[in-house]
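thread: overnight batch results

M.L. [08:02]
morning all. the overnight job finished for the chain we discussed friday. pasting input first so we're all looking at the same thing
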Amino acid sequence: VIPPALVTKAQDHDIPLSLQQWQNLTPLQRFALIKLSRPSHESKNFLPALQEFELI
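M.L. [08:03]
and the structure it wrote out:
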């Protein structure tokens, strides 16, 4: 299951994130995206992380 905060953050940027993409990430990549998707976190690194992980 993709964490709801991550789904929301991706949708805010018009980026669809599939369960298959999520499952293909390493645990460290998942951790990074969860941290970057928190409402209290500055979002400037969210899109670069998605690019680095080849999700966009």
